[in-house]
Amino acid sequence: MRLGPSTSHKLFDGNGLFLFISPHGTKSWRVKYHFQGREKLLTLGTYLLLSLKEAREACAAAKKQLSSGVDPGAEKKLRAKSLQTPFEAVAREWHANQNAVWTKNYAKDVMERIAKDIFPYLGNHPIAEITPPELLSVLRKIEICGAVDQAHRVRGICSLIFRYAIATGRPERDTAADLRDALKTRVVTPRPAITEPKAIGGLLRAIDDFPGTFTVKAGLQLLALTFLRPSEVRLGEWAEIDFEENLWRIPAKRMKMRHDHLVPLSSQSLKILHTLHDTI
Questions:
Q1: Are strands 27-35 and 38-46 parallel, antiparallel or unpaired?
Q2: What is the C-alpha separation between 81 and 162, in angstroms, rounded?
Q3: Is the pLDDT of residue 155 over 50?
Q4: Phi and psi at residue 274, in whole multiples of 5°?
Q5: Are strands 27-35 and 17-21 parallel, antiparallel or unpaired?
């Protein structure tokens, strides 16, 4: 059939799906449907990019949405709009959702990393359009500065952002996951814990002979006696120490997992804390 300059042609397959041929010869798969009493038209894709089987599957998916009370045409427009969401907007949305479980300092550290290393280069890019080579080129900038470990950490953060974006209907894959083996290998220097009694004794004697200030020496002694992290000891407050119960209560706001951490205090730890309290 020869088409005129202002005509179009429709070939139906019997399931509501049809092939629409424009006056210029462009072919596209379409489906006509009714939603809330109105007749609507949904374009599923072009003939060359979408096979008949795929078109039928898309048509079936649209009908399933209709049966659930969802307008497939409106859903497609919403999906197209969400795909254009910039990376920075998604990253800040993801970051805001994590504040309930992160400490204030950790949340600040994460945001500072991506704001410095990612936003200037990819912040305005639609997250669904960012390719592995584009992200890799940005991570390479961190590597060039000698911060290989930092590059890996930023890649990990980006991966979490992409996974959140997938869950909220933006891209369909984690672009950062494709770069696991593309970055330089981190050089890890093993620092095994001291488990030999003689070696532990040597460490404690070295701390006792520490020539620095009493405050730093007391901090080192408390680290050895309580097994706390350096930041937990350094940021400790007297209100957290219960001398009557022989207990150090580190509040949830200072813990990464947002749970209070209770540390029993030995007589040696209490003696150090009493001396430190009287000295400061």
A1: antiparallel
A2: 17
A3: yes
A4: -60, -45
A5: antiparallel
Contact 138, 121 (CB under 8 A): yes
Residue 190 has pLDDT above 80, yes or no: no
Cβ proximity of 156 and 190 under 8 Å = no
Tokens standing for residue 176: 């950062």
Residue 142: name the closest of 154, 126, 131 by CA.
Answer: 154
| Pairing label, strands 241-242, 17-21 | unpaired
Q: How far is CA 119 from the centre of its chain?
A: 14
Pairing of strands 17-21, 261-264: unpaired
Average pLDDT over residues 210-238: 90
Tell me which range, 14-23, 35-44, 157-166, 271-280, is most confidently predicted by mean pLDDT. Answer: 157-166
Do residues 139 and 155 make contact, with C-beta atoms less than 8 angstroms apart?
yes
Beta strands in 13-168 (DSSP E): 17-21, 27-35, 38-46
In terms of Cβ atoms closer than 10 Å to its own Cβ (0-12, 13-18, 19+), residue 60 is middle
Comparing CA positions, the residue from 230, 272, 235, 280 lying closest to residue 253 is 235
Q: Please name the residue that has the structure tokens 């462009």.
A: 26
* Token couple for 97: 């959702």
Could you give the angle at the alpha carbon of 236 between the alpha carbons of 97 and 189, nearest 5°?
Answer: 75
Provide mean pLDDT across the span 151-168. Answer: 92
CA 98 to chain centre: 9
